[in-house]
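Render this sequence as a predicted structure.
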Amino acid sequence: MRSGFTLVEVLVVVGVIAALAAILFPVFSSARESARKAQCLSHLRQVSQAFLLYAQDADESFPYRITDYHHWGGAGIGESWPPQIIPPWTAQVEPYFVNRSLLACPSTRRDWSWPLWAGRWGALNPGGPWLAYCGYRGYGSAIGFPHWDCFTSFGYNEAISNGLDETHLLARFKAPSQFVLLGDSEVAWFTPWGRGEIWGLTPSGVVQRLAFSEKFPPPMETDPEASKETRHGGGSQIAFCDGHVRWEIWFRIRRWSYGGPWRFHPEDDAF
């Protein structure tokens, strides 16, 4: 009568377990990311609804705040000091959603969002970047409003924030269901201009801070590994001016005037 297993039997069982693990672990990982993606979509939808509620109370206008595009120092520390004392978009819409946890995507690997929060990347020392080298955690604390310091995984359209061609006004939009308001972003404001710049558009018009929201500087759009620098399986969540939200693959996060499906800038809305 046998009292145990042979070595071959043990190795067979171990092999079967290893094979099952190799099959199931990616499935579990994919399921977890699907759950995080759904949670992010819910967060972004609630934040976009907060923008619309804000607009109802602000004469049909989205949050307006001039950024560095129009005023050096407007979103951080520049040659003119102090910078403009204007609440960032997060502070303007915060009364319209439940809590700040909605501003964070559960899938992000980042913990900073220029210029509102320095995170680990912005060590508070002379070697730190932007606000951190002055000992500030974010824009708010730099100008005496520390309650404005806030981490967010989402970025607001800088064209709308600056009111380019009055794009902060709801009546201005010809196709609000196609005009991108905010989305997964590498910073708190994404820039839909600057062709060929690492902070702007790719040569083909992809909005890099939305498309590659987990990496700066972004990868080349011709890089076969570019999708690995996205936040949600090759793409990003984006919200539109009519309040709807969707996931979009990175190479379609492209301006209308460059042959893309979405509008980001007044020049896109003129067609």
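Summary. The radius of gyration is 22 Å. Residues 70-82, 123-129 have pLDDT under 50 and may be disordered.
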